[in-house]
Model the fold of this input.
Amino acid sequence: MPTLAPTLPERPEKLDEKPAPPIPDIDLKSPLASTELSHHRTELSTHRTALSEHRTSLSEYRTDLSTDRTELSMRRTGMSFQRTRMSADRTLMSVMRTSLSLIGFGFTIYQGFEKLRESGVIASAHAPRNFGTTLVALGIGMLVFGIGYHIRFMLGLRHTRAKMAADGLVHSDSEFPPSLTLITALVLLGTGIFAIVSMLFRIGPFG
Done:
């Protein structure tokens, strides 16, 4: 797996700023004038070539820096997918806490008034029993909606990540393991369904 902080390329050494060759004082009537002018043009060409080579080195250096920045940007994008995934898990955990409160509170009301009715303290527990059952059903419904939303969101996130990885826009080295939060939510959903079935039909350990 590549490192998160690639080694920066070496910056080209600063070019010694040599002045351009001075214009020679040439006697145009002299038979050697053309030779002297040709020699001066050669010196100017050599000076321009040195400047051009230095500009090329600087351009390559900037290109290498741009490649490194692109690499880091791709990795940051990959890590942002992980942060988004963990944020979705936290959202599902909030739904689970609310659902668990509704299911637990509703079941407690149901069992409490049912025990009072069996012991003869109250004559009827019909209304509180229905209220407790409604709370449990509300908690189950909220949990079903939360799980469905979480699964749909995660499938969309995986699809977007796979598409960006195929286009070379993001690294896909890190994996998306099974969500422990989702597994726990499914177990809680099964427990809630089992509880409300026991409450309605008075079967099982919760009946």
The chain has three helices and no strands. Residues 79-201 form one domain. The first helix runs from residue 33 to 118. Residues 1-5 have pLDDT under 50 and may be disordered.
